[in-house]
Design brief:
Oligomer: single chain
CATH architecture: Roll
Number of strands: 7
CATH class: Mainly Beta
Order of helices and strands: HHEEEEEEEH
Strand content: 25-35%
Shape: globular
Length: 139
Amino acid sequence: MELKPTEQPQTFVEQMQQNYDPEMTDLVLESYLNSLLKANAIKERGKNSFIEYSVKANREGELVVTRHQQLEQRLVRNNNTLTVYGVGHSLESECSSIEQRCWVFYPDKAERWVEIEYAPKAVKELAKGMGLLIKELQK
């Protein structure tokens, strides 16, 4: 007798979402996404520079993505606020082995939104988690 799974395997972020109080889902997702983003930040070898992103959900239905870039002796921050109402929550991602980078795309656009070092599995998890966070904020 052969056993076959009845459901698609879940990503870690989906499993996490199911194991927490529904009232805390957005905070749990936000924390997990920021851990992923920090672990996969872009670091310039031999230089004191990096690019790192963070996410922050707010109760007004906005997802704020902040890009932190260390340039020699100064830190540059850019906020990008996405109003989640009316946008899709299934996000696309891609990686380039030539550029050694991966990206999550804006919802419903073929435009790069978040950038991490080359980590194909991490970017898929990141895209899934950001999509779940958008869906949570749309409630």
